[in-house]
Amino acid sequence: MNTLLPSSTAGSLPKPSWLAEPEKLWSPWTMDGEDLAEAKRDALRIALLEQQAAGIDIVSDGEQTRQHFVTTFIEHLSGVDFERRETVTIRNRYEASVPSVVGTVARERPVFVEDARFLRQQTSAPIKWALPGPMTMIDTLYDAHYKSREKLAFEFAAILNQEARELEAAGVDIIQFDEPAFNVFFDEVNDWGIAALERAIEGLRCETAVHICYGYGIKANTDWKKTLGPQWRQYEQTFPRLQASNIAIISLECHNSYVPMDLIELIRGKKVMVGAIDVASNTIETPEEVAATLRKALEFVDADKLYPSTNCGMAPLSRRVARGKLNALGAGAQIVRRELAGA
Ligand SMILES: [Zn+2]
Known about the structure:
- The protein is 38% helix and 17% strand.
- The chain is α/β, with parallel strands linked by helices.
- The chain has a single domain (33-342), classed as TIM Barrel.
- Strand 5 (174-178), helix 6 (186-200) and strand 6 form a beta-alpha-beta unit.
- The longest helix has 24 residues, at 319-342.
- The mean pLDDT is 95.
- The site of zinc ion has 7 residues, from loops.
């Protein structure tokens, strides 16, 4: 990156109401067939324009073409039966009826590659594409076939690697893996979770990132956060091993959360996407608040490795609030950029 403090979002942006019911996860599409395909492309264009208008440097598709960051990817795989559902506890937090793995999992065809190519055609700015991480994928399924979380995670890692290589070939500059499960299953993360992630990025020449957060601002997550105490030290469990991994960028949650910022010191040397926007609140940050979070992060990250970002995706927010937060992120990054240039 040539720009100092290149800004980006964690990934998702709200969808227009003509495409899917707003402020809702797994919101059904309002149309189908060729109309839907064209509407998704239009929504992607708008998401891009809004990021550019806000001065966001590394742009994304705003996840306009997917219903959910994990489910949509899995829907494209064979070996998973969406009719055969079992109730499991996701991330030790909430019960959900989920599909079952019933045979060898495989990617029959590319999942997001056409969408990424379309985004690439629209802009010359650096683009980032989000995929679910292997551990977060297995945590949203019932496994009736492999009977091993580790085995299934490595199967998914191989599939993600196929997709990632094609995304890279389509012109994606940064491939990000979303691993909120890394904030829950610490022993597994260190035993095989990070190794599975490294399998997913094998042979890639583009940049790679892992996004580890405390989730969308939905009730199951905010209730869970209330049980975490005054200091959220979850990152402390996984950062030392991540610091030693091949992942180039770590995306984490900071603003308005109880994460002690000095934990960032544990990944010194990595590029850090610092969450300076709270996605669990409708209050729009001021650019000055964003700048204050970034200045504090600069105590633990070298300026050339600081990537201003959001705590998580903004899909569940209203478009007005998300737009306001995008603008604050762009403007806040600009304030600190100017300070660094003048120093
Ligand atoms: Zn997140």
